[in-house]
Amino acid sequence: MAEGIRLNKALADAGVCSRRRADELVFAGRVRINGTPAESPGQRVLPGDTVSLDGRVIRLKEESAVPCWLMLNKPVRIVSTASDPEGRETVIDLVPEPWRQRRLFPVGRLDFFSEGLILLTDDGELAHRLTHPRWHLSKVYHVLVRPERGEASVSAALSLMRRGMILSEGDRLAPVDVRVLPSSSSRGLLLEMVLHQGLNRQIRRMCRDVEFTVLRLKRVKEGPLELGSLPPGRVRELSAEEVSALRRAVGLESATTCSDARKREKRA
Questions:
Q1: Catalytic residue numbers, as ranges
Q2: pTM beyond 0.85, yes or no
Q3: Residue 43 is part of which domain span?
Q4: For the chain, which terminus, N or C, has the lower number of CB atoms within 10 Å?
């Protein structure tokens, strides 16, 4: 395009990070265009421009490139970022061929000791929608807890969650759909919790305030997507139907998947 594209979108489309994170990098003075510090996340990147982050040149995505969407069943003790300064294993380290060569990044986060469904993509537009409060999709978690004040405290704690809590830090929470699930575990109580907002470490902070000790926390669904039987540590590509459903859920049109593109290349 003669008028170029916004810098934050160019960074996101290149698989560097989400658009929101790109804003932060630009404001921190870490991004340059043709050797000059970027003025704002909305600065336009023109064909032939050189964009660098911390001195490293970024290979910008060509307009014709087809995005990829992957689902990972994140195990515990895996960092849900593209890289980790402490050298810990990240979700990107679990991506196998043929996707390893793509500049993928995680959409949102699961904390170090949480597990389950997390999306990986190089589609900056979709990632931006999925992480923006306006388009926040409900997420379903299975949470094994131990009520420290005994089973008699459970009913009142769940009622508080359903009404909407105010955390000890002062954050006001939207009501959470929560119910007790059948479980063979003798360690604690298995809860299904449906969150409609994206507050950092929300479930763990809620449980802390009602004196539930979290023994296991697993995300099993995000919007129209379900984790299903995907084994821990394994990755699969989203189907065309799943991609379409996900994009519709955040107000975008359907799109071609990278597997579709590979099939067309083989036929050609």
A1: 111
A2: no
A3: 5-57
A4: C
Strand partners, 256: none
Which residues are registered as beta bridge partners of 180? Answer: 191
Residues of the chain below pLDDT 50: 1-2, 64, 265, 268
Note whether 50 and 27 are within 8 A (CB).
no
DSSP 156: H
Residues 128 and 251 in one domain: yes
- For residue 74, the cross-strand partners are 116
181 with 169, same domain?
Answer: yes
* Domain total of the chain: 3
Q: What angle do CA 68, 56, 112 make, to 5 degrees?
A: 55
Q: What CATH number corresponds to the domain at position 237?
A: 3.30.70.580
Per-residue model confidence (pLDDT) at position 64: 45
Contact call for residues 43 and 3 (beta carbons, < 8 A): no
Residue among 130, 129, 128, 106 nearest 116 (CA): 106
The tokens describing 65, both together, are 């490139």
Phi and psi angles of residue 38, each rounded to the nearest 5 degrees, phi first: -65, 140
Cα–Cα dist 206/60, whole Å: 41
For residue 62, the model assigns a pLDDT of 64
Closest of 21, 25, 19 to residue 37, by C-alpha: 25
Please work out, in degrees rounded to the nearest 5, the angle formed at the alpha carbon of residue 69 by the alpha carbons of 65 and 74. Answer: 140
Q: Is residue 127 part of a domain?
A: yes
Separation CA 252–CA 44 (nearest Å): 23
At 239 the three-state DSSP class reads coil
d(CA 266, CA 225): 28
3-class SS of residue 71:
strand
Q: Please check whether residues 164 and 94 belong to one and the same domain.
A: no
Distance between CA atoms of residues 135 and 146, nearest Å:
33
Residue 36 domain-assigned (yes or no):
yes
Give the chain's radius of gyration (CA, Å).
20
